[in-house]
Write a structure and sequence with these properties.
Blueprint: E1 2-7, E2 14-19, H1 22-74, H2 83-87, H3 97-116, H4 121-128, E3 144-155, H5 158-165, H6 169-186, E4 190-195, E5 198-205, H7 223-240, H8 242-245, H9 250-259, E6 267-282, E7 287-292, H10 294-309, E8 313-316, H11 317-320, H12 325-328, E9 331-337, E10 347-352, H13 360-379, H14 403-414, H15 440-443, H16 445-450, H17 456-471, H18 474-487, H19 493-506
Parallel strand pairs: 6-8
Antiparallel strand pairs: 1-2, 3-5, 3-6, 4-5, 6-7, 8-10, 9-10
Helix pairs in contact: 1-3, 1-4, 5-9, 6-7, 17-18, 18-19
Transmembrane segments: 29-50
Domain Guanylate cyclase: 149-303
Enzyme class: lyase
């Protein structure tokens, strides 16, 4: 209700009116409710919008960072990190600080994996899980004992190659590493050390199984077969991609071929199985995650002995015993040695017979040329033809081009463009191999091609010679080794080595 009173100037007479304003008050109340609801809706919409931005720009990236660090600490060598989805996001260059932090963490994780390798996985994981102390890091301490296959390989004639290539030698070594590491990783191995022209590779054997009680190749997931296959396949791929390995400037090529006419990039390999202590070596200023063991040195010694025996691969007896029957069928014992002077027990040395003189580039050229001509013949309904001779890809000319130099400049000018850039190494070959062990030894065409030169009969003759040599019947041993030389046109390295050794002994 609303009461209104009206009176005259002297307040003698007055009039009072009473009005019912219920409808107006109800209308004002409804409008006030609507106004309050509208304000609440605006505030709620603004809060949701702000919260969504905070969630997308702050909370989600921080959660990604935490998850990324957790994944790295649990599996420092993991490759399928959740960051990959963020890196492939179209907004990865949005300039947000959180995005930059995630990308930085990803790069740091990648650098740690590359720098520390498999031997440093525990170091990375343990230190990322340390929660006490602002600057607490436990980089040095006791190591752990592991059992592993150690593979050591070295580039032949590297000193002369370095003097010829000068600064381009880095391209050379890294191209070899690209082929070697690509194959080793596909065969479940890990790269540990790159020491100039030498590479140390490892294949860890499950420590839950006593290595002395391994009775089947499946017990260690065909680790020995994979290690041997890695080195054999690397040698084959180096022959196939010789143009990629030796893609240097005309100046470097001129010096290289002048000093070593007909130069071909080759490596020697040693394989051994044994224990080692895995851990960090160094100080708080600089550490290297590596292995310490006489077995690591044994693999290096085997590689060094490949030059004496004239073979690309030497294997110790402990490693040979882990091979499958399919892989062992291509191996032969080349010597029986004592590790130290005065030892009673001898250990046998083995090699896997491969012929690296095969011109795979020529073979590939013949296949492509034949395929092309057969396609033309098929279109014209003519009979198929045999393979035509093809020229080798590797050619050298002082005049023809500066393509290698121009390609290198192009790579540098393109900088961080994310197209197919290979950091100046050239067009990196993609290498895919079969993991169908142990059948791969009898199904891979390349393996069959490089092992065809040395037959089982020749292997049996050499074995008879080794038995006679070990028994002390040197004259009979010479007859067998000479027979192997005759069968191989005098090119068998182990037979030459044993004959030279027998000559020294008899004289």
């Amino acid at each position: 209700m609303e009461v209104i009173t009206v009176s005259d100037a002297s307040f003698t007479y007055s009039m009072t009116s009473v009005f019912d304003i219920t409808g107006r008050v109800r209308e004002e109340a409804i409008l006030a409710i609507l106004l309050t609801s509208f304000v609440i809706f605006l505030l709620g919409l603004g809060m949701v919008s702000f919260t969504k931005d905070v969630h997308n720009l702050v909370i989600v990236p921080i959660e990604h960072m935490i998850q990324l660090v957790r994944e790295i600490s649990e599996n420092p060598l993991g490759k399928d990190l959740s960051l990959r989805a963020v890196d492939n996001n179209k907004q990865k260059d949005d300039g947000m600080e959180t995005t930059l932090l995630i990308r930085t963490i990803s790069k740091i994780a990648g650098l740690m994996r590359v720098g520390f390798g498999e031997a440093g996985a525990d170091i990375i994981g343990k230190n990322l899980n340390i929660t006490h102390g602002a600057d607490a890091m436990n980089l040095l301490g006791t190591g752990r004992k592991i059992h592993s296959i150690f593979g050591f390989c070295d580039v032949r004639q590297f000193t002369d190659t370095t003097e010829c290539l000068q600064e381009e030698v880095m391209l050379f070594v890294n191209r070899i590493a690209h082929i070697l590491h690509s194959i080793v990783v596909q065969c479940d191995g890990a790269a540990n050390k790159n020491i100039g022209d030498a590479f140390l590779l490892t294949w860890k054997v499950n420590t839950s199984t006593d290595p002395q009680q391994i009775t089947s190749c499946a017990d260690h997931n065909y680790a020995a077969d994979k290690a041997l296959f890695s080195f054999v396949k690397t040698m084959i791929e180096m022959i196939k991609h010789e143009d990629f390995l030796c893609n240097f400037s005309p100046r470097a090529l001129a010096e290289l071929y002048e000093r070593m006419p007909g130069y071909k990039c080759r490596i020697g390999c040693g394989l051994h199985f044994g224990w080692a202590i895995e851990g960090a070596i160094g100080s708080s200023k600089k550490i290297d995650a590596s292995y310490i063991s006489p077995h690591v040195n044994m693999s290096e010694s085997l590689e060094g002995a490949t030059k004496d025996y004239g073979v690309p691969i030497l294997m110790s007896e402990p490693f040979y015993n882990l091979l499958s029957s399919e892989a062992a069928a291509g191996c032969r014992k080349v010597d029986a040695i004592k590790k130290r002077e005065g030892d009673i027990v001898t250990t046998n040395l083995y090699t896997y017979d491969v012929d690296l003189s095969i011109d795979f580039a020529h073979e590939e050229g013949k296949k492509k040329e034949t395929k092309k001509k057969n396609e033309k013949a098929r279109k014209k309904k003519r009979p198929m033809i045999g393979p035509a001779p093809a020229q080798r890809k590797t050619q050298f000319s002082l005049v023809d081009d500066h393509r290698a130099e121009n390609q290198r400049k192009t790579f540098l000018q393109r900088g961080n463009n994310n197209e197919n850039i290979s950091d100046g190494l050239g067009q990196l070959p993609r290498i895919k191999i079969s993991n169908n062990f142990p059948d791969v030894w009898n199904s891979d065409e390349d393996i069959l091609q490089v092992t065809a030169h040395f037959t089982d009969e020749m292997r049996a003759i050499f074995s008879d010679g080794m038995d006679a040599y070990i028994a002390g019947d040197y004259d009979e041993a010479k007859l067998f080794f000479y027979q192997v030389l005759d069968e191989t046109d005098g090119n068998d390295g182990p037979a030459q080595c044993m004959l030279a050794k027998l000559t020294r002994v008899t004289h």
